[in-house]
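ok trying again, last paste got cut off:
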Amino acid sequence: MYIKNLILLISLFFIFNCSKNIREIERAWKKSCINEYKHTEGSIDYKNCMIIQEENFLETIKSIES
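nice, full thing came through this time. structure:
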């Protein structure tokens, strides 16, 4: 019983750390687009930046999950 709880606790710790890292990565790519195109947030360049960064973000998540 003790080992089972310990394994569960360790698993939850790793899940929390991974989700925290994913949120930090997501914040970073959004911030990079905002900083680069801060005066033209509605522009096509800004939208394209967001699309490209989101694709990169999803690829990063897939590599973490693998």
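cool. Helices lie at 2-36, 44-65. The chain has a mean pLDDT of 72.
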